[in-house]
Amino acid sequence: MKTRRSLLLALGIAVSLSMAVPASATQQPTIPAESAAQIETEGTGTADDAVGGGEAEKDTVDSTDSSSQTVPQTLDNTEPVAGTEDGDAVPTPTQEPTPSVTATPEPSVAPTDEPEVTEEWFRAEDGRWQYLVGGEPLKDTVLKDTVQDGSDQVFYFDASGYLATGLYNITDKTQFKGLDGESFALGLYGFETEGQDPRQDGLGAMVTNDWMFSEQGNSWHWLTETGLEDNTGKDGWQQIDEKWYYLNGAGQAAADKTGWQQIDEDWYFLNADGTVDSAKDGWQQVSEGKWLYAQDGKGEIRTGWQEISGKWYFLKDDGTRDTGKTGIQTINGAQYYVNSDGSLKKNTTVDQDGMRYVLGADGKVQKSYKPVKEQWMRNSTGWWYQREDGTYPKNCWEKIGGRLYSFDANGYMRSGGWYLEKGTWYYLESSGAAKEGWLLLGDTWYYLQPGTGEMLTGWQKVNGTRYYMNGSGAMLTGWQNIGGTWYYMNGSGAMLTGWQLINGTWYYMNGSGAMQIGWQRIGGIWYYLDGSGAMVTGWHLINGAWYYMDGSGHMLTGWQLIGG
């Protein structure tokens, strides 16, 4: 609620009263009752009416008939003026009268203050807001008001007297004037559409320095600090409420500006509604051969060598891949061989520009050289081998032409018989190649591990057959007690299993080659093998009981005709 008073009305009343009373009166005049009522009545006008009402009151008081006033019959210290009639004489004081407390004339009815003109917000039954002044709603008027948060806001009330919301195109100044007569420029203005109460949440407040969307025109409008629309320079990319739109001169957004878009110097991945897709992280391919590195949907161009999904690409200043960067390339201070698809060659050897490059498990170049012919070389000391890189093996084993050779600390090939290295025996032929597989020296067989040439001992399985080599590597034959168990190896050293007739006697070796003794059930038939492993036949007393085994060693049961 606001109250405004008409100072002009009060001023008009005071002037009219001072002019209606003689300055030298010693007696307070009495104003007729009807004149006082007239002042009081006119005091209810507007400020503009009050200015005219004051003059009218003066005229009214001045024109009042003298018979209705009580005029003093005598005036102290006055005398008639020559040339006038007594009744018409204007009294002129011969000396200054001494003012008394009661000398100031006052109206018999004191003027009252102008009645309060109320101003207030009002919500109509349909929920729309109005602003009432003296009970009447403002229409076609701009109101400046201080709201609850202390801010000064501008509101507009349309021709129907309701608070305006949304966009309004003002074409007539008479429709858009301030309450105090202030004029505003014509054009498009916007007023806040969100909220419930203009006094509290800004509903209907004039929008300034912000964008506003027109559903009807499907367009955006920039409202300046005065509230007036001005889309000058507001075409192209614009960020509105954390969304990006590509606007034409009319403020309409282009519908095809989605996906990766370059805005000024930055790149963003835009959804159909203009929001940035924050899920876009890491390397993103914008177009064929063009890459961006994204974080929360914002992409940046990175240049030089970049690893993307396990492949290496050399990116130019515009983010496109330099497809010419293949073959041997230096990346982060190391050399690699880059394939045409960006992958790296690994664990191999490649030739480029007359040079040979050895690549490790990570693709990094381990060494490079200008290749020469690989060949055996000989001098007065012995044989050595020249590699393709010009170096030669020394103090190591090297496989050359599919055979293993041992070289001493000076790089010369070893040869000629048994060679012990780190507790392991090898046999080197006269050619220097290490012997692998079976080796017969005199009457003794040895077995050397294929691939390494190491001499083997103990049980060995060769081509599915088990053999036993003693501590010297010699292959054993015949009966052998190994670890407290008897085994039999034939003349070729092969371990035997199952029934074996050895020197006219039958023996039985299980699947592991171990000779068996005592009762044995073999193929559903019982046999008895004595302590030497020999199969018995005929009558035998075993643990106090007599048994009879036929000529095949089968234990017989039931009635048997023996010796008959």
Automatic annotation (TrEMBL):
* Ranges of compositional bias, category Polar residues: 92-105
Under InterPro entries, the record lists: Cell_wall/Cho-bd_repeat
Q: What keywords is this UniProt entry annotated with?
A: Repeat, Signal
UniProt-listed SUPFAM superfamilies: Cell wall binding repeat (SSF69360)
Q: Where are the Cell wall-binding repeats?
A: 234-253, 257-276, 302-321, 325-344, 456-475, 476-495, 496-515, 516-535, 536-555
Entry superkingdom: Bacteria
Q: Where is this region: Disordered?
A: 25-116
Q: Pfam families annotated for this entry?
A: Choline_bind_1, Choline_bind_3
- Signal sequence segment: 1-25
Low complexity compositional bias, start-end? 41-50, 63-74
PROSITE patterns from the UniProt entry: CW
Per its record, how is this protein called by name? Uncharacterized protein
Source species of the chain: Candidatus Pullilachnospira stercoravium
